[in-house]
Amino acid sequence: MSKKVKPYKDSDLGKKEQVKQMFDTISDDYDGLNRVISFGIDLKWRRKVVSILKKKAPKNILDIATGTGDLAIAMTATGAEKIIGLDISPGMLEVGKAKISSKSLQDTIEMIVGDSENLPFDDNTFDAITVAFGVRNFENLEKGLSEILRVLKPSGSFVVLETSVPIKTPFKQGYRFYTKYILPTIGKIFSKDRSAYAYLSESASVFPHGEAFNNILGKIGFIGIENKPQTFGVASIYVATK
Asked: I need a surface site. Which of 173, 176, 227, 232 has the fewest CB within 10 A?
C-alpha cells in the first residue's frame, strides 16, 4: 500500500486490532448497509467468483475475511464438500453463523475465528481460497498473501474480489465523489460507527489495484494471474494459481 490507513486515527492500537474492533461494532448493520452502498451489485460480483470456481470443482474451500459469510454461503453452489469461513471478527462470524443455520448449511460450512496472516492450517490444505473485500484490511499484505500461498494446494485456485478505482472518465470522477462524500454520509446516518465507512472508502482508494496487485501476487509466487475489472472498474476479480 502506498499509505497505511487505519479505521481509528486517534487509536494507539495496530491496524489488525482496529479492524477487528470496527467489524465487531458494525456487524449487525453490515449486510444491510453493504446492499445499500453497492446498490446490490456486490451480489452479482460474488456470483461471478462462484462461477469461476465452479469450473474447478474444488472439494474444500477456505474463505478468508469471510465476514457474515455471504461468499462462503454462495460457494456451496460449487459443490464443495467443505467450506471454512475465517475472520478476525467474532461479531461478524456470529451474524454469519445465524445465516448458515437458517439455511441448514452447518454440515458444509464451518466458521472460525482466525488471523489471515497466521493461518491455523497445514501446508497444501485447500483446493481453493477466496477473499472478498478483505485483502485491503490485512495489516501486512504480503505476509497474508504468503500464508494463503502456503496453505493452498499445488495447482489450487486463489480468487480475490476487491474494490478498485476506475481509470476512465467519467467513472473515475463519479467514483471519487461517491466514495468521498456519499459513502461516509450513509455510514454516519445508518451505522453505529461513524469512522468505519470513511475507513472503508479511504482504504479502497489507496489499495494497489489492477496491475499493481497483479505484480504483488507474482512477487509472492502465484502464477497464471488474471485481473477481471467489474462494473466500470469499481471492483476487480483477481484469479491466480499456485
From this structure: 173
Give this prediction's pTM: 0.92
User: CA-CA distance, 176 to 153, in Å (whole number)?
Assistant: 39
- Asked whether 164 and 235 are in contact (CB, 8 A), the reply is yes
Q: Quote the CA–CA distance of 240 and 17 in Å, as a whole number.
A: 29
**CA separation, residue 2 to residues 34, 47, 127, 203, 225 (Å):** 26, 30, 32, 10, 22
DSSP 13-61: S-HHHHHHHHHHHHHHHHHHHHHHHHTTHHHHHHHHHHHHHHTT--SEE
H-helix or E-strand containing 232?
A: none
| Whole-number Å distance between alpha carbons of 211 and 217 | 10
Under 8 Å between Cβ of 159 and 52: yes
Q: What is the pLDDT of residues 110-157, one digit of tens each?
A: 999 999 999 999 999 999 999 999 999 999 999 999 999 999 999 999
Alpha carbon distance 224, 209 (integer Å)? 17
Decide if 130 contacts 63 (C-beta within 8 A). yes
Q: Quick one: how far is CA 225 from the chain centroid? A: 18
Measured CA to CA, the distance from residue 165 to residue 108 in angstroms comes to: 35
